[in-house]
């Protein structure tokens, strides 16, 4: 089998890159990651060389190109069924995919106001309209999933659904958006996962600063 190469943006800021990287790393899928920083006002011209959309993440597998976080996760789940990226139970898989699509397409107020920033010191900011509703819905999803599974992750063990929400864990943490004990316990579980800690260590070592993402 050809090698999987996952191209990602800055690990400190790139929430979209974190999601597939974390899913693959946490589930033991072998791959190489290549960081191309978006330290230019319009991203990085090199993105066009490796991605049809001019954005990251993008996965190269031989001649195959797969872009967009959730598409990459689904492609790899088909390649490596033994990695069990999604829950094994069919109903749980349906819920995990629904939650993940909701994360992918929604929560725009939270995304806009609170960019992912691994290195950011914890500090609250004034929040625009819509952020509180986004936070409340995400907490509802987490409570619902963990009540069904028993935790510590959304479906018991770490799955692609947890990877899809991992950037939110950082946002909730560094912008001090939540106080509920159950929410904080889930966040602690994600932050303590070896794969998340590996990404975090790399992010903290990066030299690049993107002013637009320093909220």
TrEMBL record:
Residues 4-84 form the GST N-terminal domain. It comes from the Bacteria. Signal peptide: none annotated. PANTHER family: GLUTATHIONE S-TRANSFERASE GSTA, GLUTATHIONE S-TRANSFERASE-RELATED. This is Glutathione S-transferase family protein.
